[in-house]
Amino acid sequence: MTNTLFPIFLKTETARFLIVGGGNVGLEKTETLLRQNPNVSIKLIAIEISLKVKEVLAQNPHIVFHERPFEENDLKETDFVITATNDKVLNTQIKQKANQLKILVNSADQPDLCDFYLGSIVKKGHLKIAISTNGKSPVLARRLREHLEDTIPENINESIENLNAFREKHKGDFQSKLASLNQVTSVLVDQTNSTKKEQNYKKLVFQIAGIFLAVFFGYGLSTIISVTDLNHLASNIPQAFFAMIAVGFFAQIVDGAVGLGYGVTCATSMMLFGIKLPAISGSIHTAEMFSSGISGFSHYKFGNVNKKLLFWLAIPGAIGAVSGALLLIYLGDKYETITYGVLATYTMLIGIRLIVIAFREKIDKKQVKHTGVLGFSGGFFDAFGGGGWGPIVTSTLLAKGRKSKYVIGTVSLAEFFVTLAASITFFASLGVSHWYIVVGLILGGSLAAPLAAKLAGKLPQKTAILLVAFLVIVFSVRMLLKIV
């Protein structure tokens, strides 16, 4: 069978559809039409109409329906017929009668009875893509639709509107308009420019991270480790250094398997070792800055970042991080026991939040309000508690029905600026008194990274998140009991 299909896009404002069948297939066809035009004219006929179809009919009172067998009179005032029954004889009879009246017919899963196909449809604003496999594999068409929905950026409609405005304002003839549009859109296929931009962003994050690392260790070596004492220091490495290697290794394994929990896992573990509170958060953010920078800009490279959302998370998040870091430095010196209690309670609440995330069902997309407040809160508590940016910000955005691809990519890149702001604040206030903690975390995380990458996706996400939540809650409770 050759592919002789000619794809067209039909305006549905005046089209009249008859659907015969009230089961799951009838439901699918009805919902498909409604997604393209909520006011489309539909008449549904079925001997028995399922409860789910009746719910759709109740939500769309303009749909005419009758719970009875098909009658030839049903073809009157109809432009297209969709048969959605499992009775092939009836479907054949309907097609014959409809074709006699010059009415086109689609029969679900029966290509030989189809005059047209209802392909899988990708819809993003003004952009609409229909996919057909010539009736051979609806499953493949659906998979291609899902792939395109994830690949095409959410802001594609803005590009279409801008190009339309450009076209409307252009005063030239068709050829000059076409030449101008080609010039404007050439960047979309200019792989060289795209690659250069990606390399520039990657170069930027490495430069920032490299400068901070050089200053960090340079200051540490000049104020703490003299050249004459270098050999002595090597033989007297603090025992906490090895503990931090273990903490960094464990936290990276958790983060690699689940996608969040690095900061909270480090914070709760380090509190049990009795490390000073400002050093806990400062060390975590300094160590995490490098990984979050590389991760965030990698997401940017693959188009997983929503720039508008990034702006409203990164700037308020950085301000919140500085505020949280300064508050922790002040409280950590004067009210150590109280601050331990506050942080242990906070990490326990984060653990409970993770349990809620694990059992959360898929919900519809909702508007995200006060994004700047969310960014500030995430940055503040992340710096004050040594972690929690992911559980607070990522979980909130996902709970609003946002696509995980863009949420994780945007939040990861924003986290780089949040951790950078917190690290600079801790570094400026405390110096490098906690260098061995930072190095231990980085070394442990580096050792765990390859193993964590292999574990990613192996453990069911719900199970993994529940395990992290359990560990965080147990550590937090132990810390609370320790200070009581």
TrEMBL record:
TM helices/strands, residue ranges: 204-228, 240-264, 309-332, 338-359, 406-428, 434-452, 464-481
Coiled-coil region: none
Catalytic activity: precorrin-2 + NAD(+) = sirohydrochlorin + NADH + 2 H(+)
Main location: membrane
Pathway: Porphyrin-containing compound metabolism; siroheme biosynthesis; sirohydrochlorin from precorrin-2: step 1/1
Keyword Cell division (UniProt): no
Occurrences of domain Siroheme synthase central (ranges): 125-150
SUPFAM superfamilies xref list: NAD(P)-binding Rossmann-fold domains, Siroheme synthase middle domains-like
Cell compartment(s), UniProt: Cell membrane; Membrane
KW NAD (keyword) present: yes
GO molecular function list: ferrochelatase activity; precorrin-2 dehydrogenase activity
Keywords: Cell membrane, Membrane, NAD, Oxidoreductase, Porphyrin biosynthesis, Transmembrane, Transmembrane helix
NCBIfam families per the UniProt record, alphabetical: cysG_Nterm
Family of this protein: Belongs to the 4-toluene sulfonate uptake permease (TSUP) (TC 2.A.102) family.
Stated name of the protein: Probable membrane transporter protein
Phylogenetic lineage: Bacteria, Pseudomonadati, Bacteroidota, Flavobacteriia, Flavobacteriales
